Amino acid sequence: MAIIQTVLGEIDSADLGFTLAYEHLFSDLTTRAPEELKAIFESFKKDNVGETVEELMLYRQANGNAVVDMTPYGVDVIDRPQKLAEAARQTGIHIVCGSAFYTASSWTEEERGMSIQEIADLYISDIVNGFGSTGIKPGVIGEIGVSNPIEACEEKSLKAAAQASLVTGLTISVHPGSIEESPAMIVKILTDYGVRQDKIIIGHMSTTFAPDRLADLLAFADMGTYFAFDQFATPERNYQSIGRPYWSDEEGVRAIRFLCEAGFRDKILISCDEINTMLNVGKGGPGYIYIPNVIVPMMRAQGIPETDIHAITVENPAKAFAIG
Hints:
This protein is α/β, with parallel strands linked by helices.
């Protein structure tokens, strides 16, 4: 039996079910924001258990069964592990959470001074003992943040994640720099440390590759890691803000179909990466229901077989987040 660590304890991976593989249930973008932006980002904060429970219940009604919360240090909320556990208890949704440092801009000076071993020890302690004194344990090392170009503290974090993965058996999930070369560089750093390709998830395919250059995406897929199309429902302005070409939802689904037909069905994960409260259904946003209610029907309409949809939404997460 393969095991997955959730915030309420270990479960059989066969029980994970339909999974959003790259989300944020509780987050606070004000924690490391410049002073002039704090007021703006205050309205984006996701720290209300009741609101999150409402959103997850909608997701459960849409046959959702699990969510992976990838909120890293630097943009997390106070008591995030406890809030995640309470949301899981109230909804019956399996919640897997991560432990990781994000991109360099969210690190304190003290954190930047940590050694690879000190960062690895922190990740391992979270995984083995739980966050602080909570006893609540992460089930993935992620999302590890990487910028373009990669900064020194981010490279240390990747190498520390590799150490922690080798010790604990947890998968590593990485937010790559927004450039085509970043995923391959990340995979090389991790595999040079001995991490297997099937213990690596590279997120944000749509802000890393261009929709009109699927050959580049295909070449990366051939490296053997899991990879996530995790930014469905993202508006065009978000792509413009980082200088990347826009992916419509239709283009994302078309790329998934292309990769399935090329033989990479068993490495694909999907999600929406909803980092702020304005994306909640209750605030007029797409919510966690967007994948089951909009993207899955779009996959069917584009001719993706039910067996492939089931693999992407159920089977692949169960394998990707299994310990070992």
